[in-house]
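re: ur question from the group chat, yeah i did fold both. here u go
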Amino acid sequence: MTAIGRLGLLLGLAFAPLLHFGPRPWAQVLVGALVVLALLAAAVLTWRRAGLRLASAGMAVAGLAMALLMRILIRGPDPFAAPPSALIAFGLVLLLATAFLLAQSRTAPELWDQWRRHQRTVTLADVLCFRQIPRLPGAGPSSLPIRA
């Protein structure tokens, strides 16, 4: 299992009881805010270090999906009891985030391959310190042409 997978498992084991047994709506707000902030930080770091613009957009959109999910969970413990429009909006935003990541792998395959190779070498400690996002040579905002 990769370090990202272990982090997901760890967060799932930690947050599931909190979301189920924690005080409503504060537990949902706390968990949602932590995940949204982590996704936004990862989006900014991915843009600056790796120059993967679409992947950064996908992470930011995933943060929006998490905010929508937390809104659904705040309303009640059963997410499928939420209004269909909220579930559809969540699903569409999640699909958009996935589409951004798939598009990134097609538009810059050499950078994406470097990213994936780096992901295989990181540890859980690296992920917790945001070191899973590599500094790719020739990438990032400093490599963008300056227009006068």
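okk and heres the other one u asked abt
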Amino acid sequence: MVAWGEEAVKIVNSMARGEQDTAAVQRNLLADSLVFVVAVHRRIAWVTDNGLWNRLGREEGSLWWNAQRRALALDGETLEQSVEAALNLYALTARRVRSVLLPAELAILEHVCAIIRRERTFRGNVRDAMG
């Protein structure tokens, strides 16, 4: 999760600079990779990742699954909407795994989530998934 925080911050920075291509790539990295963080956290073994996104999406509940689907732009979301969803997915995943993190790791995740919250406040989209 700590390493994926860098990708979340890159999304915030690239959107602020109008670098849509970079934001889209970072969004894709988060949308694709955070499912594996949750799978490892839940000690789910998989032989193939086929179906893993659907399985974990359903099992993690509607907030996580909706954020994942929107980050993947499965329902025609705009770039801004899908980027927002990817950031929310990061924050939701951070909340999910926070109990197993070391204090230094948790501090990094909280810092990343604070950056996300500041960006959302600036744009008027406050939602604190880290909780």
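fwiw on the second one: Residues 69 and 75 are 8 Å apart (CA to CA). The chain has six helices and no strands. idk if thats what u expected
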